[in-house]
Each structure stands twice: as structure tokens, then as C-alpha cells.
Amino acid sequence: MEYNLADLFESVVDVVPDREALVYIDIPGTGAERRLTYAELDAAANRIGHHLIDSGIQPGEHVGLHMYNGIEYLQVALGCLKARAVPVNVNYRYVEDELVYLYRDADLVGLVFDAELSDRVAAALPLTQKLRHLVRVGDAVPGVDAVAFTDAEAAGSPERGFPQRSGDDQFIIYTGGTTGMPKGVMWRQEDLFFSGMGGGAPTGEPVKKPEELAERVAAGGSGITFFPTPPLMHGTSTLTAFIGFNFGQRVVLHRKFSPEDVLRTIEQEKVTSMSLVGDAMLRPLIDALKGPMKGTDTSSMFSVSSSGAIMSDTVRRQFLELVPNVMLLNNFGSSESGFNGTATDDAGPERGFRVRVNSRTQVVDPATHEPIAVGEVGRVAQCGHVPLGYYNDPRKTAETFFEKDGERWVLLGDMATVDEEGVVIVLGRGSQCINTGGEKVYPEEVEQALKSHPDVYDALVAGVPDTKWGHHVAAVVQLREGAPRPSLDDIRTHCRSQLAGYKIPRQLVIEDSIQRSPSGKADYRWAREVAVRADG
Fold first, then answer.
1. Residue 355, domain extent
2. Which of 172, 189, 208 is the last residue of a domain?
3. How much is the pLDDT for 177?
4. Which positions of the chain have pLDDT values less than 50?
5. Do 389 and 448 share a domain, yes or no?
6. Distance (Å, rounded) from C-alpha 88 to C-alpha 79?
7. What's 346's domain CATH number?
8. What is the pTM of this model?
9. What digits encode the pLDDT tens for the residues 164-191?
10. Is the separation of the CB atoms in 30 and 260 below 8 Å?
11. Distance between CA 330 and CA 288 in Å, rounded?
């Protein structure tokens, strides 16, 4: 047996076949529930895996998952892995040009898509090159010739009987593309298991051999319920679901994020571990707990983790006042590195985003790849179980991945420094750094200060061209409902106690809402355009 994700999943199924594996609550929608045991999910994935093989999908070929959250998403992902096809996530918000780019860049030969997205798929199809097999989830819609998902299931065998698999089989995660075109991160499944899924024990000792995963599941009990609330088409939620499967525990899904419905599900399903993306998801939960969902039983909750964006200090405190016994974890990682570490309890505007990183992570000089001295600024890098590179992008692969002392490393986009205690202080993405009057300002730090203002609900920070300073710091904010409109002076006064003078915004733009991806990640291109337009 190897560290292959399908093999590992099947080993868990064999020891807890009758344990509930996956719960899907169709919200918003009918509110209907579907529940699958591990044996039922295994059989459902087998059917899709056999259908892909019977349809001519070869080992190593790429199949796009263009769907909303649902059982079908994870069923298809597992089916691909079983058939040795490579699952590729597709952003369901993409429009025609973006889909054409991704379908072609990823060399998709197969696509499983939600019927609601048929018009976008139909528009992109004529411009794709290799796409030859389509499966539609939902009712037929004119314009796209595709096999119905129910027919694909019915035709496929529920038994296993797949060719031998390998830890070298691939899994591709396309990045969000918030700072450029999305890139396909190529992972060996063995590397993804250890870096993205904690080697079967994200908070403990990784397994020493593949067979040990099922042994641990058999020796343990049930009672943990994982609830990934962001879209599965972003890597974090899919990895969270697989972590749940690797534990032999239960995973709960909603179609889309709704704070009231999330809280109902926490109470109903006794959720213990929930994942989300920063303040954009945590704030609405706070508002719901103070309002229509006041009194919701959240006593089952043990942890709330955030990846992709931080839960700010102010918002964390507000949540803990309402749910006092939960552990809030700001995780640090990326599509290119998996999990790197967790923010310390004293992380915040005053001390920065302080992270206790794992032993495989360093802050290095991007030119020499050598560790930086205390107080210097470098880039975060990780060695060991790292991706093979970016699919179809040798130039970016050469810029991002390197070898040192016989080990393969990945150089992340995050700038950071290290203090005397060895704690990494993450400053922000180098691509978003604002150079103002020769000083460097990282948006994330300013955003934390802005969001601690009592009238600010959400905020993004961008650099705007300035004849005097080169660029000035602009704050684009969304106010709390019913809050008075603050002036720029009000905002500057509030920030002055938390930020050096050159970091304080010189421009304030108030918008009805802050534009983010479905997972809550910041759209800095939008923020910059809004600020530049407002600056005149």
C-alpha cells in the first residue's frame, strides 16, 4: 500500500463501513438532507470512477470539477482518484473567458458541472481544445451535450476493481487568481497527504506507514464532525473534508454559506470543528448570534479555523464573547505549501501576524535562499513534501521552486521577518506591498486596524499612484448597517494608536460592500480600481 488518497480512503472504509461519512444539507434550496455512510460513499465514488474509465478517461488525464458544494463534488473527486484521473477544481464564478483559459490551461479532457452553470459551459466549450467528455449534475439544459450524472452513476459498477495506484498519482489545485491568472499547483498525492492533510494527524504525529491510518481509525471512536463552510472549489475546504475522512469521522456540507443556516447546522449536527475564511465569514456569524440566532446551542464546538484570510483580533474577541469555549485558529499556508503553522494567541495589530511555523518552514533571502537574520525581511519558504510545480508554467515554476542541500523547496509570496524567539511575523503578500515615500506598507496590517473601528464592517487596502509619495495608502471600507459615516480624519485618528504614521490611510472610500471571492479571499484588483477611480 502507498500514500495514495484513494487507497487511504478505502482502508478507512474497510474498518468503519457503517459509520456516517458525509451529510449534505441543501441550503439554500429545499433544505433536504442526504446522508452517506463510508461504505455508501465508497460505492458511489466507485460508480463514478468506473464511468470515467468506461468513457475513455486515461490515468493521468485531467477532469474538471465545476460544481457547487455537494455530495457529488466529493464523490467525483474520489472517483477521479480511484480511476487515477487527476481532479482539477474549477471556480464556479468564472465567466466565459476565464473558463476558456482554465479549461485549456489545465488540458481538461473531462468535466463534471452543475446544470446551473450550463450557459457558461456552453459558451466556453467551442473554444476548448481537448474536452471530450461531459457529465451534468441536475436537470438537462439546452446547449450542452452531456451525460446525466444519474445515468453515469447507474452505468458504473459499485465495486472497486481498479488498477493499482501510486503515491505519485497527481492532484491539481488551481489557485484563486486574485493577483493574476490562476495557476495549477501539481501535487503528488503522497506530498499532499503530508503537507495539506497533516499526514493523518494535523495536530499530532503523522503516520509512519500507510496502513497505520486505518489502524488509528479502528482504535479510535467517532464523535467528531467537520464542517468546511467555504466552497470546495477552493483547496482549503476539500483538504478539510479529506482530513475528516482520514480520521474516519463525519463531514457536513452546505451548498452555499448562510450564517443563520450554518448556526442551525452546528446545533442540529453537533459540529465540533468548523473551517471558514477570515472576518468575511466570522462577522456574519457574530451578527446572527446577536440577532435572529441568539440562543443557538454551540456547546459542541471545539475549534474554528481560518485559512486564506485572518480572523482579526477585534472580531475574534467578539466571537469569543458569544462562544467562549471554542478555540480560534488562524492557520497559515497556501495552495503551494499546504499547512505551515498557526498564529500565536498574541497575534494582532500591535505585534503583527505572529506564526509558530513547523520545522519545514523558514524565512529566507529570495535571492540566495539562505535564512535571514533576526529583524531582516525575507520570504517564507518550505521544504520536504512540496508540489512538483505549476502545470503548464515552467517559467513560474522555476521562479517559485528550488533545490537546496538535496531538498526541494517552495518559495511563497508572503514576506516575513523573524523575532528573537524564532516566531515568524508575516507582513503580507509581496505582490500587494505598497511603496509610499520609500516605506513599505502591507495591506493586511492596515486592514486589521481598520476593522477594529466600531463602525467598520469590512475593509481592504490598496496603493494609489501619487505624485508626491509614489503611492499613497487608500482604505476601501464597508460600514456596519446603520453606522454613521466616518470622515477620513476619524479613521486616521483611530489607526494612529496602532500604526506608524506612514501606514495610516490618506484616502477613504466607502462602498456598500467589499468584493471578495466566494471563499472570502480579498479581491485587491477590485479595491485598487475603486480607490483609483475615487481619487479622480
1. 340-428
2. 208
3. 61
4. none
5. no
6. 12
7. 2.30.38.10
8. 0.88
9. 999 999 999 998 765 567 899 999 999 9
10. no
11. 22
